[in-house]
């Protein structure tokens, strides 16, 4: 039986007097591709911020690989993070961005490149290592951010709206690459999105609306439960 790599229990969160998360509960199993799906403003990025400790958790519990999030040195050591907003240094080359991040993880230049050597080729970045990031297109920049997140060989990869603003081919190339990480590296993935076409029927999905979980489970089972034709119809039915 697979264990849960991420557990979120009874989370509430407010910005001042405005409550944006209300009793959030969900988990993802080790070695699975899981999706947090909701419209803009639903609370997805706030959950992401709490998992990554960009926001302080006050009410509820989060654990990663059985470590409570408040034990952040252990809880966060085995995760990789891809933020929605770009976080690369545009004036550095791809290689320099990777080296800098690797140094924060205690790796020297050779160790950094060795840790991601195969992934550089799979992401087709071997000819861009000496390119200044500002000269890359959006799709290649996003690939570099994913590559950077893999340097410490994470057990859990968190991606917040990773394909927003990309063309269709770039979106699905990145999505397929991340799905392959689950299959070949046994990495657990939490893919946060508002895009329905990125979700497959065997994915584990958690649906969120205005700070509340409205459904969770395997996509095809949720669709069957509510007797709808597809996930879009099911979601629209649940948020009506």
UniProtKB/TrEMBL annotation:
Under Pfam families, the record lists: ABC_tran (PF00005)
Which Gene3D superfamilies does the annotation name? Answer: P-loop containing nucleotide triphosphate hydrolases (3.40.50.300)
Q: Give start-end of the signal peptide.
A: none
Q: Which domain of life is it from?
A: Bacteria
Q: Does the keyword Ligase apply?
A: no
| UniProtKB keywords | ATP-binding, Nodulation, Nucleotide-binding, Transport
GO molecular function terms listed in the Swiss-Prot or TrEMBL record: ATP binding; ATP hydrolysis activity
Residue span, ABC transporter domain? 6-235
| Family per record | Belongs to the ABC transporter superfamily.
- What PANTHER family does its record include? ABC TRANSPORTER ATP-BINDING PROTEIN, ABC TRANSPORTER ATP-BINDING PROTEIN NATA
Can you name this protein?
Answer: PQQ-dependent alcohol dehydrogenase-associated ABC transporter, ATP-binding protein
